[in-house]
Amino acid sequence: MTREEIIQELEAKLGRQLDTEWNPTENIADAWDVVEGMRLKGWHVLVNGNPPGTERKDWPAPCHTCFSVPGVTYPGDPMIFHGYADTFPMAICAAAIKLLERLGPVAPPAPSVTGWREPGGESNI
Predict the structure, then answer these.
(1) What is the structure's pLDDT at 94?
(2) Non-local CB neighbours of 76 within 8 Å, separated by 6+ positions
(3) Which one, 9, 53, 68, 116, has the greatest CB density within 10 A?
């Protein structure tokens, strides 16, 4: 996704324009506000990346962010939200957008692993 697409997605999900001085898609300090906000709500946060000149076949870009329910580790779990981009701020925002698309306009506190149930469905554990 481009910076403009991520901003448009975030604004659409939030239902408002982003403050032009707060720019989590470009400013790592602002992006870290997103990471800290998710961590404080109980989400497990993973931010990692590949050094220049190295590649991972399973990553479409060098920077990766993941928000997940603590204790959930298997690939494909519906409560794991990945974001990949060329920069960490963009990867953080991409993961946050995926979480917001699935769970609503305001990221909820992370459900406990033992208590999470898909809406109207069975426990995913």
Answers:
(1) 92
(2) none
(3) 68
Give the H/E segment covering residue 32.
helix 28-40
Please determine, for residue 1, whether its predicted confidence score (pLDDT) is greater than 70: no
As given in the structure block, the two tokens for residue 117 are 């149930």
Other beta carbons within 10 Å of 87? 17
Place of tokens 């329910």: 69
**Cβ–Cβ < 8 Å for 117, 60:** no
Residue 72 has φ and ψ, to the nearest 5°, of -90, 120
Domains defined along the chain, listed by start: 3-103 (3.30.2120)
For 49-72, write each residue's pLDDT tens digit.
877 777 777 777 888 888 887 777
CA 26 to chain centre: 15
Predicted pLDDT of residue 106: 61
Instruction: Report which residue type is found at 116.
Output: W
